[in-house]
Amino acid sequence: RVVSTQSTGDGKLHITRFTDSHSCSICPANMCKSAILSLHPVSSGFPRFYFGDGGNDLCPVLSLSEGDTACPRTGFSLCKHMDAKAGEVKCRVLKWSDVGNVVEHLEGKVKD
After folding, report:
1. CA-CA distance, 35 to 110, in Å (whole number)?
2. Strand partners of residue 7
3. Which DSSP letter does residue 42 get?
């Protein structure tokens, strides 16, 4: 599922906030990604994979549980933020620089 800010066009692009307010101190004012994740619960037995690279992806990563996997892109700010908050990250972490890294990991899981 992909969630983003809303936009419309009538010759001009109009972008609106996803939400007007939330209580998160990490996320920008227009969108708390953890709040969005909570609106879309995962079915029992299915792990959640969260891909991100920016600092605004730290909040949802911190909300993931042990059965989930965060996939931060190496060399980008999310990796640095996660390293700084390593004690707060409860999920598995799969750092990647190329989608091939992720495919190899998933293929290994399917074989297990």
Report:
1. 30
2. 15
3. P
Residue 49, phi then psi, degrees to nearest 5: -115, 125
Specify the pLDDT at position 91.
Answer: 95
Structure-block tokens of residue 92: 């598995």
Tokens coding 51 = 């891909």
β-pairing, 49-52 vs 69-72, is parallel
For the stretch 40-67, pLDDT in tens is: 777 777 778 899 999 889 999 999 999 8
- pLDDT tens readout for residues 68-87: 999 999 999 999 999 999 99
pTM: 0.77
Answer for the pair 59, 34: CB distance below 8 angstroms, yes or no.
yes
